[in-house]
């Protein structure tokens, strides 16, 4: 684009110089020398300026000037990993501090490490191509230096990344890594943790069994007597997405309701706080009800309803879907024809709040979800990121607790059950 503008400007100056030369010939002979010289110098100056390549600003700086503008933390500026603040935190044994940084206490972290460490030790992120996003099995051979990065520090890096927003500079200081290694270990660690949690029953996102569905219906009716056969709640989650100059991408991810760019995700929660179904990383222009239809959520809920009568509670944004397996909160609670229907509308509106608690459990536990997703990032990287957060949400629920839905609907299942029940 810049070269094209330069050529157009050169063309204008050449036409201007040619016009001046034509006018010069019409003037008196006494003025010909001065005017012709002026036209010649105009042409020569324009040619010299526009044909010269611009020197990058960085090349005009000396070594110290480039060093001051370098956004890097070199090895001499960070501590060794074995002396890092992360290692100090691990040695402290303080549950509250570890929950603040990683979202998990020491018991949950050790359980997660048992799943993560074998995969971490069996694979290497250094493949020579797109390190971290690709990996290979470690070849057993002699020689080479041992890794400074341990399985515990890599796992802590991934969990801390999920808990914080912003640049990776802060993680370099926390873990004692330089720029490239922290990025590579992050991408590699996310993939190993996703692989580990995908096989774990505590983390898996799956529909409950028939026996579990009946239990969920009983738990819901215990809190909302007017609602029968309700087994889960669902809602859409909009995650911010970076705008772009590409009109096609811009149109796909622009959402008129939020007046911004985002990705659309649909999450379904049970009364115990578990995520039982999710559809992630859809373009922001897709409506929640459309995503539920296209993603197969309605078909799965319909199969549950046909098997044991289970019903899902949604908000009024899903009015486009009319199915027996769904019940929607009412915008007009008093627009019912019978007292029984009025009670159902009121209770359904109250129950819908549980879906908001589920969204809050995910966004509050892992604030990285509030970070704007980059449009130039590989879509597979976003897929790994969002899948991992869904699995971590379930794993954290079963190992750490701290979930509003469970505390309200099944307080006796929580880790703080004795205290909550005695003070309720």
Structural commentary:
With 424 residues, the protein is of the alpha/beta class. It folds into three domains: 2-54; 75-139 and 147-197, no CATH class; 210-422. The chain has 18 helices and eight strands. The protein has helices at 2-26, 29-51, 63-68, 85-92, 95-102, 106-122, 151-163, 169-175, 179-197, 210-223, 247-253, 288-294, 297-308, 339-351, 353-365, 379-399, 404-409, 417-422, and strands at 123-124, 136-137, 230-240, 254-255, 260-269, 275-283, 311-314, 326-328. The strands form two sheets. Strands 3, 4, 5, 6, 7 and 8 form a six-stranded mixed beta sheet that branches. Strands 1-2 form a two-stranded antiparallel sheet. Helix 6 crosses helix 9, helix 7 packs across helix 9 and helix 9 (179-197) crosses helix 16. It is globular, with a radius of gyration of 31 Å. The protein starts with a helix and ends with a helix. The model is unreliable at 24-33 (pLDDT under 50).
Q: Radius of gyration, rounded?
A: 31 Å
Counting structural domains, the number is 3
Residue-averaged pLDDT: 82
**What is the percentage of strand-forming residues?**
5-15%
Helix residue percentage: 40-55%
Terminal CA distance reads 68 Å
Count the strands? Answer: 8
Q: Biggest sheet: strands, sense, closure?
A: 6 strands, mixed
| Element order: H for helix, E for strand | HHHHHHEEHHHHEHEEEHHEEHHHHH
Low-confidence stretches: 24-33
Q: How many separate helices?
A: 18
Q: Provide the structure class.
A: alpha/beta
Spatial shape? globular
